[in-house]
Specification:
Layout: H1 2-15, H2 47-58, H3 60-63, H4 84-89, H5 92-101, H6 116-129
The structure holds heme C.
Amino acid sequence: MLVALSCIGVAAVGCNGAPADLREWRASDHGQEPGALDPDPATPADPVSNARALWAVHCVGCHGREGRGDGAMATMRPPDMTSEAFQQSHSDVQIRTSIVAGKGGAMPSFGAVLRPEAVAQLTALIRAMGAH
Ligand code: HEC
């Protein structure tokens, strides 16, 4: 995402009559490996750590680090995903659907934010939370 925004920035400069020899922006210009700050599922070294990065950005505030529903915004009453009751009453399809479409007004929809691969990785992470 950061990389994408930076590229848009360079493109905008180009439109404003920048010199023709203006070279492409490179990730190394910012001292970053491509994707170093970006939990983008297109380049995951490891789906589990990718899912954890996504969780830390998008979900931890309400659901808590381990999915116990004890995040800083726990007053919204997210479920305890580590519980057997949650795991048994939720199919993978239902988990995916709720991530994409949201649920009950308090659970936001992430369909416009997360790619299908990311939703699948988060679903697997939520499943793994039940094993603890
Ligand atoms: C603003 C707070 C908030 C954020 C951020 C949030 N959730 Fe939720 N989530 C909730 C609440 C509250 C519920 C309970 C909704 C209900 O049952 O009515 C919930 C429920 C769920 C459920 C169970 C839905 C069901 O079918 O019962 C899943 C799965 C889920 N969240 C996944 C996620 C994932 C993955 C993220 C991050 C991408 C996330 N949530 C981010 C508040 C949040």
